[in-house]
Amino acid sequence: MSTQAAPRKKTTVLSLRKKKRNSVPITMMTAYDYPSARSIEDAQLDMILVGDSLGMVVLGYDNTLSVTMDDMIHHCKAVARGAKTPMLVGDMPFMSYQVDVKEAVRNAGRLLAEGNMDAIKLEGGIEMADTVRAIVNVGIPVVGHIGLTPQSVNQLGGFKVQGRKATAAAKLLEDAYAMQDAGCCALVLEAVPDRIARYISDVLDIPTIGIGGGNGCDGQVLVYHDTLGFFDKFTPRFVKQYGQLNTVIAEALNNYKDEVESRAFPAPEHSFTMKDEEWDAFLDLVEPKIEAKDFFGMGANR
Length: 302
Ligand code: KIV
Description:
This protein has a single domain (13-240), classed as Alpha-Beta Barrel (TIM Barrel), CATH 3.20.20. Helices cover 42% and strands 12% of the residues. It has 12 helices and 8 strands. Strands 1-2-3-4-5-6-7-8 form an 8-stranded parallel beta barrel, surrounded by 6 helices. Strand 6 (186-190), helix 9 (194-203) and strand 7 (208-211) form a beta-alpha-beta unit. The radius of gyration is 26 Å and the shape is elongated. The relative contact order is 0.10. The mean pLDDT is 96. Bound molecules: 3-methyl-2-oxobutanoic acid. 3-methyl-2-oxobutanoic acid (KIV) is lined by residues 30, 49, 51-53, 91, 145, 188, 190, 211, 221, 223.
């Protein structure tokens, strides 16, 4: 008798809460395209974030500020085609939600309606509470993001750890409560001292997802390209590289170049054959014309 594994269930806001209640860590990874989404689906992670980090690791900008709604929707759609069971979270890019609440709701809606996401993420604490509330009120799950918020890199003076001083840590806690109260279904804590991230995780009802928040968070998220050694401009201290794709890719491309230049590639098994009689018929057809310079472009008739 064959035993078939039950189909994997889609991660929802309820299953995230259940994981927190049962102290089961939540796994999240960023993805930006169909192949990365497929590999995360196959690895059975709980959540995918189509992060605006795509500006840095895919589009080559120095920060995330140039990413647009159209960029996000383009990449969200590709990810949604590749992953069905992880909860898909689309990042709200810089200036898509900060100017006015109505515009924020409309843009959040676009990430679901056009980008096929299940939820959105936005950066900020207490100052974003009304915006989060308005988005949640139209039925869109919101993941908050506090601590190091890359869209404020210029105000923060760089990609720096946040909440190291007692007053700053207390402000983080206030922001965390404000996000929970506004209706967030989960909260990303980025580059925060581990004991503060653990404290916040312990007191909140909603799950926290750490990135540089230490081991006390309810889940972890990393950037796909950082995790796989696929981005070498810089690697934050909180990243662990589980692969070295850049090395693998460089080796593969160097081998390809060498083999093309030495004519080792393509080998017969990469080529297509033709029957001898068709080859002979081809020569009978073309050789008289070649001799008479009778092909268009050969100049015989000029
Ligand atoms: O854009 C992103 O990838 C993020 C993560 C760093 C949490 O916001």
